Hints:
Elements: H1 2-19, H2 73-80, H3 94-99, H4 108-122, H5 127-131, H6 137-140, H7 148-157
Amino acid sequence: MRNVGSFGVLCFCAAIGLSACSSDNPQLMNLQNPGNGPEEFGVLPTKPLETPPSYTSLPTPTPGGTNRVDPTPRADAIAALGGNAARARPATGDLVNYTTRFGTTSNIRGQLAAEDLEWRKKNQGRVLYRAFGVPQYFEAYEKMSLDQYQELQRWRRRGIDTPAAPPKPN
């Protein structure tokens, strides 16, 4: 009986010791690239290949120039909305001016990163979760999450249509 108690204390001490080996930057979701493979979000899809009306009218290849199948998101969006990309004006600063009318913080990304790091250090979760790599993200940020169905009801009570809202799961 004494050996069983000693073994339990030894396991508990080992778990505490392993959890102390964590880094200074808590990783709540444990999202890490295990290898040197490609970054799947860095690959841009190309347009489908098409046969030109005449092979003799093709432009001369330009090294380093654009390709007919390169993505052109701005022109594609204009065309999808029924416009003409060739006649489109360059973007003005009206949207930026409107959104920054109450002022901005010059180092907002650094400030948010520091605040988030401090929050993650305070809310690292349970010792055994960290020891076995269980994600702590949802528990750590639960106080900040928005109840989507409560918010949906709030907007509907105000008389605002929300036709694209998903139904509440049973």
